Amino acid sequence: MEIGTEYLRDMAERLKSLRNAAERAVAQVDDHGFFAAPDAETNSIAINLKHVGGNLRSRMTDFLTSDGEKPDRDRDGEFIVEDGETRADIEAAWAGGWEILERELAALTADDLLRTIHIRGEPHTVLGALNRHLSHLAIHTGQIVLLAKHYAGDAWQTLSIPRGQSKTYRP
Fold first, then answer.
1. Contact, 54 vs 85, CB < 8 A?
2. How do strand 116-119 and strand 122-125 relate by DSSP bridges?
3. pTM reported for the whole predicted model
4. Which of 28, 34, 76, 134 satisfies CB 3.0 to 4.6 Å to 152 for a cystine?
5. Other Cβ atoms within 10 Å of 118 Cβ, number
6. Each residue's pLDDT tens digit, 68-118
């Protein structure tokens, strides 16, 4: 087994798992829960999705050949739900970012992992940039899941092993 190829396979699997968890969580909330924020300093599910979609679009478009902070990115705007912006709009931006990530990741080879790319002018290996994406996406996925669980309330369907049932999931 070649370690670079295995790393890319595993990274794709980990990222897919994060996307799946976030989307399964979001599916459990109504529009109120989607747009609600517990306080002024906490991002709603909508804001988390909008930010991740914008981040992935910027970082992953032309991943190997252009800086990850694209000139047309409005990062501050990712943290505002504009008047008239719908859940469908935000979910489409989220899905679009993920599609770019998945396409660019699928095109990478083990030989690319030690290449240098730039994010905001700062050099990163491809390996380092992918790890950075994974940790960033894990943070936002956790926020999304926690908010969805809160707003779904008693209707929440766990995304993993239900409490008190760990023994039934052992091999």
1. no
2. antiparallel
3. 0.94
4. 28
5. 13
6. 999 999 999 999 999 999 999 999 999 999 999 999 999 999 999 999 999
